[in-house]
Amino acid sequence: MRVRHIAAGLVASTLVFTACGSSKTATTTSSSAAGSSSTAAAGGLTATGKIDNCDVYGTKGSIPFTPTSSGTLSLQTSLPAPGWFNGDNAAGVKDGYEYCMGAEIAWLGGLDKVSLTNVDFDQLVAAGTKSFDLALAEISITDKRKQVVDFSTPYFASDIGVIVKKDTAVTSTADLKKLSIGVQQGTTGADFATKNIAPNAKVFPDSASMFAALDAGSVQAVMTDTSIVQQQEKQSNGAEVVVGQYKTGESYGALYPKGSANEDAFNKAIQYMIDNKILSKLSVTYLSGDPTTVPFFTV
């Protein structure tokens, strides 16, 4: 595991935005608990167990729910999502900010296993995926999405960031409008960019192809969540830089099937993680960059 650090400004605002993309063919893997731990602390808590590489906290089974599949939490996401889910496929993911959120929810629910499925992001937010308990995929909470799915208590705050190659000069919206821009299909970043910056922005089906286009020079800038472009900047080893962001005030939430009977329990588990600074610990461990240092552009 490569440990990433994030400044206190982000840790304090562990609250959110939109999204990451993925393959269109769902893949699933199941992981299980691996004994207990007593070394890692979060908000004064000591880890009481471990699921894969994730320390888990609190009393196992203290927030019970009825899972879709007996004995395991069925979790959906959209890969790749470095920092959030570390691994390029469902079978390879053993940790990451959101994966460990899922592990904690499973533990508090009395479970030892997380079954992860990689799905298409656009289908996920349109209620096109089935047979899961919840999804964590850097999903912005929006009124439009609420029409077909339900959302949790917000758990992470982010805005729309701009990333370019390091030799591309961008200090304003005027500069940005001169460039070819890439966005990911179905995200709030795509909606914002096409409405306010680049009506003809190039739309990609997932984050991997979007960032590959920036690497190859097919587009000159990419717009998506600030938290996500900061992860990409880290992954690029300095070849790409985050030059600015736009304030939107959106938040990430866990996505539930509409009318899920487990919503109250899942919300309690997420609030438990917020109150006990477990999410702050996950930010320090897995995420990269301080968003408060990124300048804000105006439209």
Describe this entry's structure for a reader.
Helix 2 (97-108) packs across helix 9 (263-275). The protein has helices at 8-12, 97-108, 121-125, 143-146, 173-176, 188-196, 207-216, 226-235, 263-275, 278-286; strands at residues 27-32, 41-42, 45-46, 49-51, 54-56, 72-77, 113-118, 134-135, 149-151, 156-165, 181-184, 202-204, 221-225, 240-252, 255-257. The protein has 10 helices and 15 strands. The strands form 5 sheets. A 5-stranded mixed β-sheet has the order 12-11-13-10-14, sandwiched between helices. The chain is globular. It has 299 residues and is α/β, with parallel strands linked by helices.
CATH architectural group of the largest domain: 3-Layer(aba) Sandwich
Give the CA-based shape.
Answer: globular
Number of domains: 2
> What is the helix content?
25-40%
Radius of gyration: 18 Å
Say which CATH homologous superfamily of the largest domain is assigned: Periplasmic binding protein-like II
Strand content: 15-25%
What class, by secondary structure content? alpha/beta
Order of helices and strands: HEEEEEEHEHEHEEHEHEHEHEEHH
End-to-end gap: 39 Å
Outline the biggest β-sheet. 5 strands, mixed
What is the arithmetic mean of pLDDT? 88
Number of helices: 10
Total beta strands:
15
Which fold name fills CATH's third level, the topology of the largest domain?
D-Maltodextrin-Binding Protein, domain 2
**Can you identify the CATH class of the largest domain?**
Alpha Beta
Residue windows where pLDDT falls under 50 for at least 5 positions? 1-25, 35-39
